[in-house]
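Suppose you are handed only two things: the residues of a chain and a line of SMILES describing zinc ion. What would the bound structure be? This form records exactly that question and the answer produced for it, so the two can be stored side by side and reused later without any lookup.

QUESTION INPUTS
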Amino acid sequence: MISDAHFHLKQLLEVSPEQADFIKENIFKGICSCRTLEEVEFVENFIAKNPETVQKLKISFGIHPQAPDEKELKTLEKLVFENRIAAVGEIGLDRFNEEFAKTFDLQKKLFVIQLEIAKKAGLPVILHIRKAIQEVFEQIQTLKELKKVIFHSFSGTAEEAESILNHGVNAYFSFGNAILNGHKKAIETVRSLPEERILTETDAPYQPKKGDHFSKLSDLVEIMDKINKIRGCDSSATEAGEPAAKQSEGSMKNRHDEEKQ
Ligand SMILES: [Zn+2]
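ANSWER OUTPUT
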């Protein structure tokens, strides 16, 4: 099984239409992250046109911290009410640069409201957090009450991840090309987390491997291999029944600081 905890189907197919074949041809599961109703409709239409992908693709929707628009809360509520999304996200906090930092108060407000919506609906959340881990800990009580919390492209430290788990949050941490690109904190966190808490993602098309122009779904195979190497497992010796991150064998046709979205 190849799984992608976080990618953007519409934007990916715009740069690389053949990525649709990857979804259809592989044993694949992925969460398509959407920021607009139009993107949600795009994924729904893709699934309707390709019914073999109905079990493979799930949709998440959330107000992204880089574009905090309060009006979109109505869209989120509508999508939740109509049962059209499997998770709320990506939501979160981002003060990576000055431009994002300017909207931090609004980001915080929308983050808290969206966590509450997810809690009431019993939906998992997918979090985008940069330079704001302290504010995440401020919400730890709510996070504990959520079904599942996925930290996409987790950029905190191993100790912070451990602390989130120790607080009793049902947290998962997903990693992508950052570990192939040599990001030390991410590599250290992958090494130390319990393996059942580690997920893989591409954030496609937004987080390319060094030398690539965009990230793509087939990167997941290398990402899984790299996780196994970091954790001291030999992926060539993978046996059935081992955890997800180790199962990179089979079903692949091609083997073939970034802007996190
Ligand atoms: Zn993203």
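WHAT STANDS OUT: The chain has one domain: 2-246. DSSP finds twelve helices and eight strands in the chain.
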